[in-house]
Specification:
This protein is mostly helical and 235 residues long. It is 80% helix and 0% strand. About 9% of the residues have low confidence.
Length: 235
């Protein structure tokens, strides 16, 4: 019975404002989150929540942002059954990315979770090309505003640097773009903090930031020159 009823309930969020209003009156957002306990329905639930967010973000977003609910979203993403390690995991990543695109505030909260960020980074390291692309997109969204902390803690420089040489062009380009974004983020404070000899520990930190900026700049310029060379040889 459940295998027929739960997909129908998930479809209700896609229908009309009237139907979503009825779902709201009956704690529909919380009910959808409870369905996430069943791994086979997770993608349907996340897609339903994405549509609902797009149509009623003022009410749905605060419910999703409750600590217990964000923790639930994170745990169901991290939890990997044997079935989820293949098709389901990739579909789950795509569905979660859609929600993150709809809710900037939720993306910020997910970026504050070490469990969530470390799982995304692990999947970028070890997953298929499709999954890696999706997780790079998730990473791009969740690190905004926390670039420095996440960059340093998860050693993103070396990871992104290795991906710039990927044979999958889209992965290589995404890694270069993200690396460029991080280099810009690290370079701007050093320009602002040019004056004065105050702040005892600042020198060491500024020099490490400068070295990161310089390494990043070298890699990006190397990649640009190599791509220019390859295009000129094909012309």
């Amino acid at each position: 019975m459940m295998k027929f009823s739960l997909p129908l309930i998930c479809d209700m969020a896609h229908t009309s404002n009237l139907t979503r209003e009825e779902l709201w009156r009956n704690d529909g957002v919380e009910f959808y989150l409870r369905i996430l306990n069943y791994s086979q329905y997770r993608v349907l639930v996340l897609n339903a929540l994405t549509v609902w967010l797009a149509n009623d973000i003022e009410r749905v977003e605060p419910v999703l942002m409750l600590p217990s609910n964000t923790e639930f979203l994170i745990n169901t993403f991290i939890e990997r059954t044997r079935a989820d390690d293949h098709g389901h995991a990739f579909e789950h990543e795509i569905a979660l990315l859609r929600i993150i695109y709809q809710s900037r505030k939720l993306a910020v909260i997910l970026g504050q979770s070490k469990l969530f960020v470390s799982e995304v980074v692990e999947r970028i390291k070890h997953s298929s090309a499709y999954s890696r692309k999706t997780c790079l997109s998730i990473l791009t969204k969740i690190i905004i505003g926390k670039e420095k902390e996440i960059f340093m803690e998860y050693n993103l420089f070396d990871l992104l640097n290795s991906l710039t040489s990927s044979q999958q062009i889209i992965i290589s380009e995404m890694a270069k773009n993200l690396l460029g974004q991080l280099v810009v983020c690290f370079s701007s404070p050093s320009k602002k903090s040019g004056g004065g000899g105050g702040g005892g520990g600042g020198g060491g930190r500024n020099s490490s930031v400068g070295s990161l900026e310089s390494r990043g700049g070298q890699i990006l310029s190397k990649k640009r020159s190599s791509s220019n060379t390859s295009t000129s040889t094909t012309t």
